[in-house]
Design goal:
homodimer; 199 residues; mainly alpha; Tetracycline Repressor, domain 2; 9 helices; elongated; DNA-binding
Chain lengths: 199, 199
DNA sequence: GAATATTCCTAGGACCCCTAGGTTTTTCCT
DNA sequence: AGGAAAAACCTAGGGGTCCTAGGAATATTC
């Protein structure tokens, strides 16, 4: 007659939501569905998670953390083009392995600031990118611009690829390799400007 | 006593949905909300639009058309870096002016094929990109790769920018200009490979 | 072992998607 | 012009979702 408890926790709820997102897509992650997966009534989740919006934010933070860890492991001990390729591949691979979690990172975020503060992922990710680009010896503000270009390109590519944006004519994989080559060359010959515009 | 009709049509419903998306975000575009905006009961919309999913698809196609037209107008009569900058600015400006419509173009699309066939937007967009890059005299498959890199970078940048991905330290506008410079130089010095890898 | 805090539940309101079938307006045909 | 046919819009309602309020069962703490 002992009713055994499910042992819920904010993290366990978030994880269930993340798994569900990878399986059926983030837009189908609902309170009811997560509750069903955990063998619990939907109302029970609200003791651990403020709202569906909140749950989505937590999934996004989880994904950011996981992605950062993967990139850190992949780039450890590498430098220059080696590091660049490892960084980019880890990014893309994470998006492939966890499509639902990855799309969670794209949503215009409205997350509890207190949560964000505790999550090391995003901050760590920026540091990683900067140190990965160190080999190219760029000076500020070019370094910041290069970081942003990197993130834009990687995010754009994986995002378009996931949405089926590349027709089947040429394998996305081949384009990916060439784009990394191109980024590498670009970073080596970054067009530095004198601050004064000639207009 | 004449009940005046709203004069609904698939296009008018789509437009109302698109406007709503820009105002309150695509995720808040609901059948009921669109119906309210049109002064109509939600059930009335189903005579013109198959479902909410269908409506979202139509908004995405509308956005693709509009964006393509803007880019076409902006790049008309330009070539080389001029054309590149005009193309990219038109893209980014559209995303700024119509954030809801723009995010509609990002969703992994599941649209009625018959609708897609009638919409000239996407096809036209690809042609535009190819002809814009013609000035750089790339040969296939480099041309396709360059097109994909362009789209990835532009989409990634505007998407990250919209999501608030760039901290306030350096104005996004400045980074944007530098990125366009970088893309231009990259396209001029595209790293062509001999087909055989030396491994 | 009793008091307290926590976990999970039931009940229910408000909203949303979508279908079925009826009523009113418009269009079309002769 | 008048009637038939088509289209536009409605009401009614089932089933799902999010979320709150408050109650019952289980852990935890002293």
């Amino acid at each position: 007659m002992h009713m055994v408890r499910a042992g819920l926790t904010a993290d366990r709820v978030t994880l269930a939501g993340a798994e569900l997102a990878d399986e059926v897509g983030l837009e189908h992650v609902t309170m009811s569905a997560v509750a069903r997966r955990l063998g619990v009534k939907d109302a029970s989740l609200y003791a651990h998670v403020r709202s569906l919006e909140d749950l989505r934010g937590r999934i996004a933070l989880l994904a950011a953390d996981e992605k950062t860890i993967r990139i850190a492991e992949a780039t450890a001990g590498r430098a220059g083009k080696d590091a660049l390729v490892a960084y980019a591949n880890a990014w893309r691979q994470y998006a492939h392995d966890h499509p639902g979690r990855y799309t969670a990172t794209q949503i215009p975020i409205q997350i509890d600031p207190e949560l964000v503060a505790r999550a090391a992922g995003p901050r760590r990710a920026v540091e990683l990118t900067y140190s990965m680009l160190r080999a190219y010896a760029l000076q500020e503000p070019d370094l910041t611009d290069a970081v942003r270009l990197m993130r834009s390109t990687l995010h754009g590519f994986t995002s378009l690829e996931a949405a089926g944006g590349f027709a089947h004519a040429r394998p996305a994989e081949d384009t990916w390799v060439r784009c990394l080559d191109a980024l590498h060359t670009l970073l080596e010959h970054w067009p530095t400007h004198d601050e004064g515009d000639s207009t």
